[in-house]
## 1
Amino acid sequence: MDTPVCSACKTREAFFHRQYSGETLCKKCFTQSIEAKARATMTRYHMLSFDDHLAVAVSGGKDSLSLLHILAKLKRFRPKTTLTAVTVDEGIKGYRDEALEIAVANCKKLEIPHHIVSFKELYGFTLDEIIFKARSKGETELTACAYCGVLRRKAINIGARQVKANKVATAHTLDDEVQTILMNIFHGDIMRLAKEKPVTSEVHPLLVQKIKPFCEIPEKESALYAYVKKISFQDTPCPYASEALRNDIRGMINYMEAKHAGTKFTVFKAMERLRPALEETAKKESFKTCVECGEPSALDLCKTCEMLRQVR
Ligand code: SF4
Ligand code: ZN
Ligand code: ZN
């Protein structure tokens, strides 16, 4: 059987079939298509200004390191753009330590300054300690990821302010976005459904605006980009990962995508069309300042302080 030829350059050998578009791409055209897609998303959602200081949230995994590499490349043509990588050290023994080393090595290679914020420093406890305390008190309702998600979101925002960035770039992929949409529906959290979007609104002076340049790139392709570009990343899963509702939703969406190519884009685009109507409802909910820590909060006491009170 003949080796398939790339449908873009029509010369090199193809290695990847993009099911939802029908393209068959060689390695070079594939990586170029990912970089072009990220640039197109940033343009479409007006994510960048010419003199931004971006705090890039780098976990050490494939998605965040692919994003860091693409932004570093973009920066060569945008001399006024500043990049600082920000990594949150949740304090997950045997997992985060390895990811940190990989994040540090990548930043060094790309000559990007790196800043680490840790749960222990910010909150007085590592995630491991929080989970241990919560479980010994019989608090079994919330998964480790529920604690981690809330505490990490706040830590990234604080880290971005510490390095004086005006925006945070996160590597949420199309898969992450679609999973979040469905999770918010399953949780009945309509306000969050309106708020989570490719570029967040500036609703509180202490909240750094978030941009998601990978929101239209499937996770599989962001991983493939890292492999083809030979980017070193951590691929051992977090020991708490299997507890997440997100995993069940991921399985469900991947099943649908395999059977009906394009499902992920359809859900993402449906949400984009629905959002303006939801935002009208969400507008009535204003952001406050937490009475305990002084950070932005939907209620008088923010979710982080509420969780920390429980474990204390
Ligand atoms: Fe945190 Fe859960 Fe991700 Fe582990 S899998 S880093 S606990 S959100
Ligand atoms: Zn090609
Ligand atoms: Zn608080």
Note: The chain is about 50% helix and 10% strand.
## 2
Amino acid sequence: MADVPYSPGLEGVIAAETSLSYLDVEHEQIVIRGYDLIELATKVDYVRVAYLLISGHLPDAEEYQSFTKQLTAFQAVPQQIYAVMEALGPSTHLMDSLRTALSALATFDSALDRKDEENTWRQSMTLLATMPAIVANSYHIKNHQPIITPDPALNYSSNFLKMITGRIPDDIESRAFDQLLTVYSEHEMPNSTFTAIVIASTLSDMYGALVGAVASLKGTLHGGANEAVMKMLLEMKTPGQVEPYLMNKLAQKERIMGFGHRVYMKKPDPRAVLMKESLKQLVAVKGHEDLYDMCVKGEELIHREKGLFPNLDYYAAPVYYLLDVPIDLYTPIFFAARTTGLVAHVREQYAHNRLFRPRVLYTGPRDLHP
Ligand code: ACO
């Protein structure tokens, strides 16, 4: 064991083979099955990207139609799932509600443990199709509001946003939300995806793999950062407050949420660049110029002081805000969008499985006796 290199946090370690995605940091490109994620986000919709990730190719017109039909057919969430969510305590974090709902959903799958292509496709459809209703209603349940059911007449993103806000979004809002879902859809091997494939590698079921991924994504060093960013922006209030607020945090050696990334430490996150543009476009129609100015000032200051770039969560947070999404839902929506990448990774893991079982660098005592 002595000659095996140890890398805390598995930094720089190649942990898996995948044909799904790759972060080409040098060329500032996120490769998704051969395509550039940012180009996909600007040219095709989230559902097409989901199909690409799960099946391996972009759908033709017929495949797209059949895929959207399947998503509609699988939309219904068993009432018992909502009953389980309603039984949770008053201080429930919505990521914990989502984690519990996914766990409960597994118990309604009569072919839970089958790993063949057809069955894991069906399970992927179930997860992708039910996620908007589960996520949106986790908020309504917690706030004692009526459950909102999916509207099959709307496309995936418009329906998702409508179930959250209660109103049909206009085209600009729907497009911005769809782009947000797309940039969150897949990102190579973050902690949550790693968690999911580690669980899948024991041949545990797909739902269980995603339940683990929810717990991982909840953390503020990962998906939870988007909620923290918005709280920080609201605390700063005005562009004039950005400098004193952030300088004070830096003086106290606090981490600034929405900055830095294990892989992009020295390069911009291309997703953040696109979300910044999306924010600019939303501000042009909805106002809130101050919010945009605060974000830009914060970006400039942290780059000046720490040399760090904003990550996706930094600009996704104000985009959510302008779309009237409640802050508690920012991380659950990140997870909902990532479902497509996660189920694709789990399917890939089942198809080429090798159990994950690393070793340790033992630092404890030896030769003790009771
Ligand atoms: N604020 C202040 N300093 C930072 C930040 C930050 N957000 N991020 C990194 N640094 C500094 C560290 O203090 C460290 O400096 P030092 O070498 O002087 O001690 C250096 O940059 C390297 O930081 P590490 O912690 O070693 O980097 P790591 O790869 O472990 O962390 C992480 C990556 C967790 C994302 C980190 O940048 C962070 O905490 N960011 C804030 C949380 C956040 O935005 N998370 C979202 C990630 S993106 C996503 O999940 C979609």
Note: The pocket of acetyl coenzyme *A is lined by residues 190, 221-223, 225, 255-262, 306, 308, 311-313 (CB under 6 Å).
